[in-house]
């Protein structure tokens, strides 16, 4: 018989570096989950992406056990890495702080496809491009579907 | 005691959550919680790193609202710790809390009050380390426990007859908690020390390290050099997929590979230094 679900917790924490500090401790501890066990498992499963912020969806069961699914890093973080800049622009439309290429947008869209509500790579690329623009990043050249 | 700042950002529109996580993480925020289907974002940062003006600047273009509050560090694992099940490793060791009153027919009993530290025997890696420790000779040995957590493995080493045990951890809670557990188990041969690497000035006949792949790889050379002639190295915190890399690494460093044991997706490995 399937275990009864008592709730879901959505966190974003750094790969390989989860510890009982917030948000992990308060969010999971209040549900009676053994947070040390979560940290050990999460850190082992994300050891190839140390320090990278990763979304994780945790299912907590009524017996205090848990499962979790690790999603791909947010597009915004991947875009900042691609543009090799440390901070997004405050005035995103007026002050362009960096550039990415359509090839980089496509690579990020490919990576994010499983987590996005998109059926085609083109629509995923449009979503990633929208995030890039609102962060103040210019996308060099024209979109592949405009060529 | 660390204080954290919790920032609750409300009024998020479609797509803004992802964007803000990126911007805030670049600004030093270390973790996030999503609530209300992504319409509320909580961001967390050490109070000492918090900059209200920077946060206002950062959020201003997005039309969101935010509130802040202080979160004092506390034992967030207290609820689970208040009623966990004891762990029994064959007829060898029972690991229990002071609220477990039943009798265990095991050779040893270890009393653990974890207080947000790792090592209660519930995790496969601790269980395997405990069960592998049964196969070694401990009487009169000098032991290093790297990443001691609750102190569980050091305590078992003491009970098995080791004469001098150095228990290291990089976490203040673990240092305090290991010290308490050592006292409540009447162990008198363990010294606890805060450390960020396995580097010490001693050589050990047995080294225990239940941490994770990255820390073990980063300390592999030190661990190998710290082994006495013919010494044993027991390691865990590793996944099955790490086995080949870790095996090759320690063989290259000059150790002899003896065994791997498996439980769920985890492994524990045993290496030996040349005589």
UniProtKB/TrEMBL annotation, chain A:
InterPro entries cross-referenced by the UniProt entry: Ribosomal_uL11, Ribosomal_uL11_bac-typ, Ribosomal_uL11_C, Ribosomal_uL11_C_sf, Ribosomal_uL11_CS, Ribosomal_uL11_N, Ribosomal_uL11_N_sf
Large ribosomal subunit protein uL11 N-terminal domain sequence ranges: 9-66
Gene Ontology molecular functions: large ribosomal subunit rRNA binding; structural constituent of ribosome
PTM summary: One or more lysine residues are methylated.
Top-level lineage group: Bacteria
GO cellular component: cytosolic large ribosomal subunit
CDD domains referenced in this protein's UniProt entry, alphabetically: Ribosomal_L11 (cd00349)
Any one GO biological process: translation
Keywords (A to Z) from UniProt: Methylation, Ribonucleoprotein, Ribosomal protein, RNA-binding, rRNA-binding
SMART domains, alphabetized: RL11 (SM00649)
Ranges in a coiled coil: none
Transmembrane feature ranges: none
PROSITE patterns reported for this sequence: RIBOSOMAL_L11
Every Large ribosomal subunit protein uL11 C-terminal domain range: 71-139
Main function: Forms part of the ribosomal stalk which helps the ribosome interact with GTP-bound translation factors.
Family indicated by similarity: Belongs to the universal ribosomal protein uL11 family.
Subunit structure: Part of the ribosomal stalk of the 50S ribosomal subunit. Interacts with L10 and the large rRNA to form the base of the stalk. L10 forms an elongated spine to which 2 L12 dimers bind in a sequential fashion forming a pentameric L10(L12)2(L12)2 complex.
Protein name: Large ribosomal subunit protein uL11
Source organism of this protein record: Arachidicoccus rhizosphaerae
Taxonomic placement: Bacteria, Pseudomonadati, Bacteroidota, Chitinophagia, Chitinophagales
UniProtKB/TrEMBL annotation, chain B:
Enzyme Commission number(s): 2.1.1.-
Protein's UniProt keywords contain Translocase: no
Domain of life: Bacteria
InterPro entries: Ribosomal_L11_MeTrfase_PrmA, Ribosomal_PrmA_MeTrfase, SAM-dependent_MTases_sf
GO molecular function annotation: protein methyltransferase activity
Location of the protein in the cell: Cytoplasm
GO cellular component terms attached to this protein's record: cytoplasm; ribosome
Biological process, per Gene Ontology: methylation
Alphabetic keyword roster: Cytoplasm, Methyltransferase, Ribonucleoprotein, Ribosomal protein, S-adenosyl-L-methionine, Transferase
Catalyzed reactions per annotation: L-lysyl-[protein] + 3 S-adenosyl-L-methionine = N(6),N(6),N(6)-trimethyl-L-lysyl-[protein] + 3 S-adenosyl-L-homocysteine + 3 H(+)
Name of the top EC class for this enzyme: transferase
Residues that, per the record, bind S-adenosyl-L-methionine: 126, 147, 169, 210
Keyword Membrane included in the entry's annotation: no
Function, as annotated: Methylates ribosomal protein L11.
Family the entry assigns: Belongs to the methyltransferase superfamily. PrmA family.
NCBIfam families in UniProt: PRK00517.2-2
PANTHER family on file: ELECTRON TRANSFER FLAVOPROTEIN BETA SUBUNIT LYSINE METHYLTRANSFERASE
Protein name according to UniProt: Ribosomal protein L11 methyltransferase
Organism: Arachidicoccus rhizosphaerae
Lineage, broadest ranks: Bacteria, Pseudomonadati, Bacteroidota, Chitinophagia, Chitinophagales
Gene from which this protein is expressed: prmA
């Amino acid at each position: 018989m399937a275990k009864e679900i008592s709730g879901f917790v959505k966190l974003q924490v750094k790969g390989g570096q989860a510890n009982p500090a917030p948000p992990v401790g308060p969010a999971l501890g209040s549900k009676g989950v053994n947070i040390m066990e979560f940290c050990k498992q999460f850190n082992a499963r994300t050891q190839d992406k140390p320090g990278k912020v990763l979304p994780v969806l945790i299912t907590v069961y009524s017996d205090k056990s848990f499962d979790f699914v690790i999603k791909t890093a947010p597009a915004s973080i991947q875009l900042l890495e691609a543009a090799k800049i440390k901070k997004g622009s405050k005035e995103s439309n007026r002050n362009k702080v960096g550039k990415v290429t359509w090839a980089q947008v496509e690579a990020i869209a490919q990576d994010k496809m499983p987590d996005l509500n998109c059926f085609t790579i083109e629509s995923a690329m449009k979503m990633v491009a929208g995030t890039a623009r609102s962060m103040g990043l210019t996308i060099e050249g024209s979109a592949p579907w405009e060529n | 005691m660390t204080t954290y700042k919790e920032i609750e950002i409300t009024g998020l529109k479609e797509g803004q959550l992802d964007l803000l996580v990126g911007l805030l993480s670049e600004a030093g925020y270390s973790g996030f919680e999503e609530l209300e289907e992504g319409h509320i974002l909580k961001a967390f940062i050490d109070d000492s790193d918090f900059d209200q003006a920077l946060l206002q600047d950062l959020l201003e273009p997005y039309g969101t609202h935010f509130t802040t509050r202080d979160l004092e560090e506390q034992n967030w694992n207290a609820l689970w710790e208040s009623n966990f099940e004891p762990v029994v490793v064959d007829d060898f060791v029972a690991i229990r809390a002071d609220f477990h009153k039943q009798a265990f027919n095991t050779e040893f009993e270890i009393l653990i009050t974890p207080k947000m530290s790792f090592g209660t025997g519930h995790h496969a890696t601790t269980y395997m380390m405990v069960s592998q420790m049964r196969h070694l000779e401990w009487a009169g040995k000098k032991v290093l426990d790297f990443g001691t957590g609750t102190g569980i493995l050091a305590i078992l080493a003491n009970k098995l007859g080791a004469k001098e045990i150095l228990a290291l951890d990089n976490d203040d809670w673990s240092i305090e908690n290991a010290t308490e557990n050592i006292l409540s188990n009447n162990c008198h041969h363990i010294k606890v020390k805060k450390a960020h690497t396995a580097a010490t000035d001693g050589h050990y006949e047995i080294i225990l390290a239940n941490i994770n792949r990255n820390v073990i790889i980063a300390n592999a050379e030190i661990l190998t050099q710290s082994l006495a002639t013919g010494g044993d190295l027991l390691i865990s915190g590793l996944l099955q997929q790490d086995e080949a890399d870790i095996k090759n690494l320690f063989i290259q460093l000059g150790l002899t590979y003896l065994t791997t044991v498996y439980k769920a997706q985890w492994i524990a490995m045993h290496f030996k230094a040349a005589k």
